[in-house]
Amino acid sequence: MAKAADIPVDPFEPYAAAGARSVRVRARELFEQADGVLDTGDIERVHAMRVTSRRLRAVLEVFAPCFDKAAHSDVLRDVKRLADALGERRDPDVHIAAMTAFAGAVAREQRPGVETFAAHIRERQAAGNVALAAELQRIEQTDLAGRLRALADTAAPPEEGDRPAPIAELPPGDGAA
Amino acid sequence: MKARKVKGLDPAGALAENAARIVRTRLDELCAFMPRAADPREVEALHDMRIAAKRLRYVLEITGPCFGPYAETAVKVAKEVQDVLGEIHDCDVQLPEVAEFMTRLEAADVRALGATVPAGAEDLDPALVAGAPHRGDYAGLAALAVHLQARRDLLFGRFLDLWTDLERKGFRARLEYAVTERSPAADGSAATVATS
To answer: Looking at this predicted complex, what is its ipTM?
Structure first.
């Protein structure tokens, strides 16, 4: 799982400036982890995205007073919904792994019951994946990434490292007419 | 559990001053769960205390570098409290799930046995139980329930030991002091100072 980027903070800088910077970094990290999260064969992907969603939610809550209230409320609600959907998929992943380990440790006559219970959890995992797929589609359709960028701007303008690359820096042939 | 509102936050004010207010509030929220959470039956208080530990951990992870060195230690402490309470919570969630699942299997077996009774039979032949569809599942589920309960007891003991140790080491007072200290600014323009 990708380590969270360090976000340098200065005790004497404005609270709002630190908030805007933190939201931009943690939002970018969230969307970087979106690839392959629906693959139940690689449970680390959904774990990585869930962790980044928690970090984003944390900065949204810690810096809440710095942002436009209505925009913050909308974005936080959607980040919580995404985090919940990731949890609905992740919790069964962890539970299944624990049941597999437990079944391997108990007496042979005790294994069938544990395996039957694990099969029951797999049904929840599948349902969680369907719900997560719908949530991922929803955040794309409602442009959560764009709304997060706009939200950060309500606290402080982007700093040097946050600005998109100027067109002149794009490689030739990228449509910079 | 809804987080307690932090009063007096000012977006234009210094990060450290605002963060210190948040840390003090979250620390107070966490500590307020004791001694109630020292009762193993207080499932809800233990769960809410885990959330309080998580909130304290996150605010310290984000703003800890503003403060004195104990803030960094406090991140690890909050995570340790959150982790052990999280494992207790997992047991508290799984125990009723296992019990409910076993009840479902029992109900299915009761229906299956009922369907085998010949019309007009006066009693149920005990030998029919040997053919119940889920007869092989009960031993494993009972073992799982026993393991979860024993593990929960063990984890609760670890939580109490951890909290006692934190109190002995003055966790609360040390963190309260750390948030009055200021680390130097990134450009080195300020030295560590204590504020009132």
So the answer is: 0.89
